[in-house]
Design a protein that fits this description.
The protein is of the alpha/beta class. It is built from eleven helices and eleven strands. α2 packs parallel to α4, α4 packs parallel to α5 and α8 packs across α11. It is globular and about 50 Å long. The chain starts with 32 loop residues before the first strand and ends in a 33-residue tail after the last helix.
C-alpha cells in the first residue's frame, strides 16, 4: 500500500481528493498509519487505516464538472458499497482494490477536525465554499465510531465558512444542533441522495446504505427543524430505475418529505466504477449488458439525449408535486394514489421517457 507518494507535484488530476493547499507536500506518510479492525457486527470484515493527514482542504481539478472548488473528505473508501460509486477509482491511487477493497478498506483521517480548524485560520484561506460528501459519504458507518464530523462542522461554524453536505446517511441527524448553529452564521446547504424508492433495487445496488425511506425521513426531520434540504435524485439507473412510474413514485416521495428541490443525475460509469458495475450487471441482469454497452459506448456518461429526457421528466414531475424555490422548506402533503404495476426491468424502454 502506498501512502506517501500523493505529493502535490505528482498528484493525479482525476483524483479530487489528491490536491492540497500550496505548500503542503503530501496527504500523509507511512509513519502515520495505524490499521485496526473491530469485532462488532456493524464493522465485521472492515479494516480501518487511521492516518494523520497533512492537508484536509482539497482543490477540485479544473477539468471537473463539479460546481465547487474545494472539498473536505475525512474518509476514503465507503461501507455503503454502492456498486456504481464513481469514487472507486481513488482507491487505486493507494494500491487498494477498487471493488471489495473500496467497500471494506476504509482510510480514516483521524486528525481532520483539528487540521481543518488550523487551515481555515490560515491567512492563505479566503473562506471559499467547502463541499463534503462529494467523494465518499462523510456519514457512512465509520463516522458512528470516529465522530469526525462534529469537529469539522464546529470548525466551519466558528469560522463562518459556507459549506454543503451530500449524504445517504441518517447519522447526520446526530449533528442537527451543530448544523442549526452553523446556519445562523453562514450558508449551509444539505442534500440527501435518493435515486429511487424501489426496495429491491436499493438492496441490490446500495446494500450498505439506509433505505430510501429512512433517507427521506432525514429530509423530513431537517425541514421540520428549519434546515432546508434538497434531494439529489442520483443515480437514475437506465432500464432498472428509469420507468416513468418509478420516476413518478420517487419524485412524489421526495415531495412528500418536504424537499426544497430535486436534481436528477443519470448514472455515470467512470473507470474503476464501470468495471465493478458491469460485473454486477452481468451477474444480476445479464440481458441488459449489451444495452449498457451501447448506451455507454462513448464513455462514462449516458448520451445527452437520454440525460435531457430524464431531466425534463423529473422537472415536470417536480412542478406537478410543488417542489421548487417558491415553497422552499415547506412540507408537502401529497395525497396517496394507487401503486402502479411496474414493468419488469427488461421491458423498460427508452421510448417511454
Amino acid at each position: 500500500m502506498r501512502w506517501d507518494n500523493l505529493a502535490e507535484n505528482g498528484r493525479n488530476a482525476t483524483d479530487p481528493d489528491s490536491a492540497t493547499l500550496p505548500g503542503d507536500i503530501a496527504l500523509f506518510g507511512t509513519d502515520a498509519v495505524t490499521t485496526r479492525t473491530f469485532d462488532t457486527p456493524e464493522f465485521r470484515g472492515i479494516t480501518f487505516h487511521e492516518v494523520r493527514a497533512r492537508s484536509i482542504l482539497n482543490r477540485v481539478p479544473g477539468a471537473s464538472r463539479m460546481p465547487f472548488e474545494w472539498t473536505v473528505n475525512p474518509y476514503r473508501g465507503c461501507t455503503h458499497a454502492c456498486v456504481y460509486c464513481f469514487a472507486r477509482k481513488t482507491h487505486s491511487y493507494l494500491d487498494l482494490d477498487t471493488g471489495l477493497g473500496f467497500d471494506s478498506q476504509i482510510v480514516v483521517k483521524v486528525n481532520a477536525p483539528e487540521l481543518l480548524r488550523r487551515q481555515l485560520a490560515s491567512r492563505r484561506w479566503q473562506g471559499a465554499h467547502i463541499a463534503m460528501g462529494t467523494n465518499v459519504d462523510c456519514y457512512q458507518r465509520a463516522e458512528g465510531r470516529y465522530r469526525l464530523m462534529p469537529g469539522i462542522i464546529g470548525a466551519l461554524r466558528d469560522h463562518a465558512n459556507p459549506f454543503s453536505i451530500l449524504t445517504k446517511g441518517t447519522l447526520i441527524l446526530r449533528d442537527l444542533e451543530l448544523l442549526r448553529q452553523a446556519a445562523e452564521v453562514t450558508d449551509v446547504g444539505i442534500s440527501v441522495s435518493v435515486g429511487f424508492t424501489d426496495p429491491g433495487l436499493w438492496r441490490s445496488v446500495e446494500p450498505g446504505t439506509p433505505s430510501p425511506e429512512r433517507r427521506l425521513d432525514v429530509v423530513r426531520t431537517l425541514t421540520e427543524h428549519g434546515i432546508g434540504c434538497g434531494v439529489l435524485m442520483a443515480p437514475v439507473i437506465p432500464f432498472l430505475g428509469d420507468h416513468p412510474d418509478q420516476l413518478r413514485a420517487t419524485v412524489r416521495a421526495i415531495a412528500s418529505a418536504g424537499a426544497t428541490s430535486v436534481t436528477p443525475l443519470v448514472l455515470h460509469l467512470r473507470p474503476g466504477a464501470r468495471e465493478w458495475f458491469m460485473a454486477w450487471l452481468a451477474r444480476e441482469h445479464p440481458h441488459l449488458v449489451r444495452r449498457y454497452e451501447r448506451l455507454y459506448a462513448e464513455g462514462a456518461y449516458a448520451p445527452k439525449w437520454y440525460q435531457r429526457r430524464i431531466t425534463r421528466h423529473v422537472h415536470e414531475l417536480a412542478t406537478e408535486f410543488g417542489i421548487g424555490p417558491a415553497q422552499r422548506g415547506t412540507p408537502r402533503r401529497i395525497p396517496p394514489d394507487p401503486q402502479p404495476v411496474l414493468a419488469e426491468p427488461a421491458a423498460t424502454q427508452l421510448s417511454l421517457l
